[in-house]
Amino acid sequence: MASFIGRTMMLMLLILFLTITCEARTYVRIINDLGGGLNLTVHCKSADDDIGVKVLRSKEWFEFSFKPAVIIRTDFYCSFQWPGSFKWFDVYYEARDLNDCSECWWSIKSTGLGPCRLNWETNEYDHCLPWNKD
Ligand SMILES: *[C@@H]1O[C@H](CO)[C@@H](O)[C@H](O)[C@H]1NC(C)=O
């Protein structure tokens, strides 16, 4: 009897452990849609992680992924640099994005308000947000 309870407990702990560790990842993708053959230099960070500096050629993209934290919020911000411009943007802001995207794909253009996120329903980059204020 004791061993039956013991085994049931172990099984429940295992299930709990798997539920926590297999939690879905979030994917952030950055696409260079500046046009004009311009390279885009991107540097993304969170409080704990530094993704490093990436240079994207025209139309090139890169992606990183992470598990949104349960207790402490996860936020990733990047700097975006191309000739004549230096911008900041929160590519993942948990309070804004947690229930909105698990594949957060951002198109970076030199024109307009700021980055535009892929809307998976319309298949268009029509969810545009302003660059961060300095
Ligand atoms: C873009 O970057 C690549 C190397 O990463 C370089 O070879 C190329 O000349 C750059 N293009 C422009 C337009 O600066």
Write structural notes for this entry.
InterPro entries: Self-incomp_S1 (IPR010264). One of its GO terms (cellular component) is extracellular region. A hairpin with a 4-residue loop joins strand 2 (40-45) and strand 3. This protein is of the alpha+beta class and 134 residues long. The mean pLDDT is 90. The chain is elongated. The longest helix has 20 residues, at 2-21. It has helices spanning 2-21, 94-97; strands at residues 26-32, 40-45, 50-56, 61-66, 75-82, 85-93, 103-108, 116-119, 124-128. The chain has two helices and nine strands, in the order αββββββαβββ.
Topology:
Blueprint: H1 2-21, E1 26-32, E2 40-45, E3 50-56, E4 61-66, E5 75-82, E6 85-93, H2 94-97, E7 103-108, E8 116-119, E9 124-128
Parallel strand pairs: 1-7
Antiparallel strand pairs: 1-4, 2-3, 2-5, 5-6, 7-8, 8-9
2-acetamido-2-deoxy-beta-D-glucopyranose binds at residues 37, 39, 55, 57.
Highlighted features:
about 20% helix; Immunoglobulin-like; about 130 residues; 2 helices; alpha+beta; binds 2-acetamido-2-deoxy-beta-D-glucopyranose; five-stranded mixed sheet
